[in-house]
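call fold(seq) -> tokens
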Amino acid sequence: MSEATKESFTFKTELVVRRSDTRSATVVGGLYVSHLTYETFIPLVNEVFDAFLESNSWSMADIAGANIIIPKMEVEYKSEAKAGDVLEFSAGVFNLGKKSCELHISASQKISKEEVGLAKISLVFFDYVSKKTLEIPSAFRAKFEK
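ret:
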């Protein structure tokens, strides 16, 4: 794992890779492959993000009394996952600033523990009425500040 330690990931859940989560292709040498790819990894990350919010009694429309915008998401694809694989997802909040932070979501194979991917999502707290950024709500900060 990059700069984050495994202990910093406070939320955990599992998802089974569905056939619809994979992309199939014939590659050099005529080999047929079907596995999770970086672009099919993103919907799983979004599902974990929603579960993370729900575990804190929040939603995309109300995170500790505020809204957010997501200006950036980075996805690092590390290894294959195939339909039927069980992935362990971990999520944690990092780099708490005044008005923004990052949510890191990591996925690993349940059995082998091999890392499948890591997503880093930038969250900026935002007021859609005034069209201005907000300070991170104190309830959010208190929950994740180390």
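The two ends are 19 Å apart (CA to CA).
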